[in-house]
Each structure stands twice: as structure tokens, then as C-alpha cells.
Amino acid sequence: MAKVGDNISATRGSWSFSKIDHSSFEDHIEKSVPGYSQGHEYITFLSDYFISSGSRIYDIGCSTGNLIEKISKYNHKKHNIKFVGIEPVEGFKSEFNKLIERNQKNTSHSFKFVKKPIQNVSLLECDLVCSYYTIQFISPKYRQSIINHIYSRLNWGGGFLFFEKVRGIDARFHEMINLAYLEYKKSIGFTNDEIISKMFSLKGVLEPYSSKENYNFLERAGFKDITTVFKNLCFEGLLAIK
User: Fold this and answer.
1) Interacting residues of 160 by C-beta distance below 8 A, sequence separation 6+
2) pTM over 0.85
């Protein structure tokens, strides 16, 4: 086992969200993903266009429920909103429940934790789906069918916020951006050994695609209105509207 930062250890190709300290997950991911909190803020601002009283919202890979909590608080004046967090890792459930109970401001909002991988979930009709750096950890063989299903269950005018780590458009840009990201990690306190160990631990576990390939997923599913709403080095957020 090698240390990958924040008292987390992993071996080559063994990164798993079930083996980490779930109570400190947000601290680690905040440091690992530049613009992590800003992305949450942008999603809450954009939710105005999709959430109304009676809406259903899904967060795929909800982990601690942090994003759901923020969207709920931002939309506290809207009633009877159903939030569904989809998360296959059992360890996040207690954090999800504690966070929601501690911060719930509108008793008409309901919260549900579904402990299943998204490829095994049948969504109901909904107005907003968020996938915040989640699809990149799912086997490529499931990705198109997942996005197809999201499109099919969104109400007309509903939104899909699709945030992913992405590869560069060619080898030169990929190297430049990737090295800048590694410099960023070093600048915030990760050691060289931790950075390299984390890279090896994600080998075969995290498999990002390029921006173009992610656009292709969305277009094949049926989305025609797509735009970039966030970009920070190799981290990108897309908004697709049905």
C-alpha cells in the first residue's frame, strides 16, 4: 500500500471509494479536483432553469450528498422537490443521512439514497440529472446506455449536468494540461510520491474520454442543445438540455 494523500493508501489499479474514510472524502476531493466547489456553485445557479415545485432531481454518484444539500438550500422556496442520490458505496450512506438531516431547511423536500450503480437503476421522469465526476469511473461499455437512459427519462426542457475529467484534444495539449494539473497538486501540498501513487492507483479505474467523445455520447443519446459551463485544466462541465 502506498500513501496517496490525506491519510489514504492504495495500490496499483486498486483505487476504491469503498476503502476510504468517507467522513473526510470531501476534503480530499476538494484538493484533488481544481474548481470542485466552484462547480457545485455553478450547478446551483443553473438549477433555477430546471427546478420548480414538484420537480425530481437525480445526483449520480452522490457520495456524501454535499451537492444535493446545496441545491436544496438554494431552492428552499420551492416545495415538494424530490432529491434522489444514486451511490453504490455503502460507506457514504451514513454521511449522506447526517448531512441531509443536519442541513435540511425545507421540510417539503424529500431525500432518498439509492445504493446501486447507475447502470442498474431505472430512473423516473425528472427535471434535472447531475453527474459530477462519476461516469469516468464506470466501465465504458455502460456509458452510452446510461446517457441514453438519462435522456429518455428527462422531461422536455430538462437538464443534464455532466462533469468529467477529460483528455486533451491531441497528444501535445494532453501533455501540457496534464503536467499543469500535476504541478497544481504539488502546489497545494501533495508530495511527489503521493501524486505518483495516486496516478498508479487510478490505473484502469479512472478512464476519462476527450471533450469531443463526451459530446458524442450526448448527441447519440438525442441531446441537441449542449454547451460547456465549466472548464479548469482537464476538468470540464457540460450542460445538455432535452
Assistant:
1) 128, 129, 130, 131, 147, 150, 151, 154, 218, 223, 239, 240, 241, 242
2) yes
